[in-house]
Amino acid sequence: MTDRSDELTVADRDRHASDPARELALDCVTAGVEAAHPAGVVADALAVEDGRLVVTTVDGRTASRDLNGYDRVVVVGAGNAAGHFAAALEGLLGDRIDGGAVVTDDPVETERVAVLPGDHPTPSEAGVESARRVRAVATDAGASDLVIGLITGGGSALLAAPAAGVGLDDLRETTDALLASGATIAEINAVRKHLSAVKGGGLARAAAPADALGLAVSDVTGDDPSVIASGPLSPDPTTYADAFAVLDRHGVGVPPAVEERLDRGVAGEVAETPGPDDPVFDGVAVRVVASARTALNAAREVAAERGYEPLVLSSRVRGEAREAAKTHAAVAEECRAAGDPVDPPAVVLSAGEVTVTLGDDPGRGGPNQEFALSAALELDAAGPDGGGVAVASVDTDGIDGSTDAAGALVDDRLAGEDGSDRDDDGPLDREAAARALGAHDAYGALDDAGALLRTGPTGTNVNDLRAVVIPAGADDSPAADE
């Protein structure tokens, strides 16, 4: 992992890191977020050799483009990390970049690429105007130019370019309904692609006949380029019919303009998004340069350095947040009881995309907060043999749901029957915590307990990251061997 000066800051860090297990859980997720920052990613994954831009992907493959073979190199992009990505790329390519524009909600200073404002997770007027400018840069590129696309998590909302007949309010209402429905990001983006002028290969269509090289920081399970930021430079395997099926499957109501757009698409009255055989992709390639695996590898290194046995459970955890938490708690209990699948002291790591299906009148929170609250209740239910297990769960962009928290750090002593088990952080009453979880109001309960992790925008987004720290039991401690 490349060292950087702009390390992630966690508010009230000393209070959160009040014992070794909690400190390690926090350090694991912090290291993961830092490893996925574009400054380190560009240093580790990109290089210029004899005038060629060489790209190393997350799976170790390489690709290159001869920068000297193009009249101009322009940069476009969108996402939570797009501004930092553009700044890091400028540091590498310097005056080889002839201009460009990216849209983000985490702006930074740049010299050659305009960093434009947008909003996440719900699109805004600012995002619409910024998307227009990004699309104009791509459209202006000629056959002898190279368009470098910086594609990162959050780009679906930030690159807001409503299709003809669809207004911004229509997009906002549809986005909010999809996010509350429990649909996966792939399902949500199948709908978004068919309501946009740039998603689902639309930006590649605008850039043609220029060549394009997409550099993606993935925030989606499986790292499918057609799903990351709704695949603006990638062929779209989904159809208008698929988009309708998502709405039907999750019972999502949409504005009349959206329904009419999809109806016309199914009827063949509106052109489909470009598919794999479309010639607009003849000079286009998209390479994933950072993902949840990037974060997991860094977290694993931290655990090993502290003398804990690291186990990556999966980089593809998905489903309802509260249910995924129960599985992680069960794994921690099995480690303590039987030394399987790993013997303590151990750190169980996972990443992926958990979701929350909201009912009527939900409270505040996000998937990682709901995961943490559910884990605290499950670990407490295991009784006194929990052994100080700590759980940190964060969204790596620093924004869990629509709150000011990245996630939460809890342990197996957080929830007591009467709130008496802990008195340092304002412990949770078990019954009140269970009610908060049932009402999807994890934010308030965790905030009262001092468990919320606040980082502010992190400059990256590789989705959720979790660390479950299982210390050695009393019989395994160094003192027991003396």
What is the number of beta strands? 17
Total individual domains: 2
Shape: globular
Indicate the proportion of strand residues. 15-25%
CATH superfamily of the largest domain: MOFRL domain
Tally of helical segments: 16
* Low-pLDDT regions: 1-5, 382-386, 418-426, 474-482
CATH topology of the largest domain, what is it called?
A: glycerate kinase, domain 1
Which CATH top level class of the largest domain fits? Alpha Beta
Strand order of the largest sheet: 6-5-4-7-8-9
The CATH architecture assignment of the largest domain turns out to be: 3-Layer(aba) Sandwich
Kindly provide the radius of gyration, computed on alpha-carbon positions and rounded to a whole number of angstroms.
23 Å
Largest sheet: 6 strands, parallel
Average pLDDT score? 92
Helix content: 25-40%
Describe this structure in words.
- InterPro entries: GK-like_C_sf (IPR037035), GK_N_sf (IPR038614), MOFRL (IPR007835), MOFRL_assoc_dom (IPR025286), MOFRL_protein (IPR039760).
- Residues 403-428 are annotated as: Disordered.
- GO terms for molecular function: glycerate kinase activity.
- Residues 347-464 form the MOFRL domain.
- Pfam families: DUF4147, MOFRL.
- The protein is α/β, with parallel strands linked by helices and 482 residues long.
- It is globular, with a radius of gyration of 23 Å.
- Strand 2 (52-56) and strand 3 (62-66) form a beta hairpin.
- Helix 2 runs antiparallel to helix 12 (292-305), helix 3 (38-45) packs parallel to helix 4 and helix 10 (240-249) packs across helix 11 (256-266).
- Residues 1-5, 382-386, 418-426 and 474-482 have low confidence and may be disordered.
- The protein has helices at residues 13-16, 20-35, 38-45, 82-93, 125-140, 155-158, 168-180, 185-193, 202-207, 240-249, 256-266, 292-305, 321-338, 367-381, 430-438, 442-448, and strands spanning 46-49, 52-56, 62-66, 72-78, 100-104, 114-117, 145-152, 211-217, 284-290, 309-320, 346-355, 390-395, 407-411, 415-416, 428-429, 452-453, 464-470.
- It folds into two domains: 13-18 and 292-481, MOFRL domain (glycerate kinase, domain 1), CATH 3.40.1480; 38-161 and 196-238 and 273-290, Glycerate kinase, MOFRL-like N-terminal domain (Rossmann fold).
- The strands form four sheets. It has a six-stranded parallel beta sheet with strand order 6-5-4-7-8-9. It has a six-stranded mixed beta sheet with strand order 10-11-17-12-13-16, with helices on both faces. Strands 1-2-3 form a three-stranded antiparallel beta sheet.
- It contains 16 helices and 17 strands.
- It starts with 12 loop residues before the first helix and ends in a 12-residue tail after the last strand.
